[in-house]
Request: fold
Amino acid sequence: MTVDPPIRQAMLDAIPHLRAFAISLSGNITYADDLVQTALMRGLENIDKFQPGTSMQAWLFTILRNQFYTEMRKHRREVADPDGTMAGMLAVMPEQGAHLDFTDMQAALAQLSVEQREALLLVAAEGVSYDEAARICGTNIGTIKSRVNRARARLAGLLHLEPEEDLGPDRLIKATLFLHASL
Reply:
């Protein structure tokens, strides 16, 4: 890009004033130098929008000021996190894992007998006591306990779970931590 010598000189003459203005806005010399450089680069990129006969310095001041306030608005929404501590605390479990677990659970439940599924859903999903589940199903408490126990064991087998393992986010967290530790 070729810039007319008078425009180039006007830009060069404006640098000390731009720097002083940037320092007064930001209070940080390094950041002020970055603002000046950005203002000059944007000025060069948009030199066709500069109106000859107007003040180059004022035009560059406007660019610098607008850049400063744009960055301030952006930084206001950001949190300083140089060591990544905050970002580490903002981890979100992937949604697809829970959906897949739910789909697997539905398919496994469909393979249980109606009596086992009914007992398990009443006790484990609905939180009904064994006594209430026995009344609802018209059987005794021992039968309900047996059906729930058999249903849990069958589900664990169908879902390839270890006896102490549970379905859900805990399993995903364990897998993630295992992968992270092995890296």
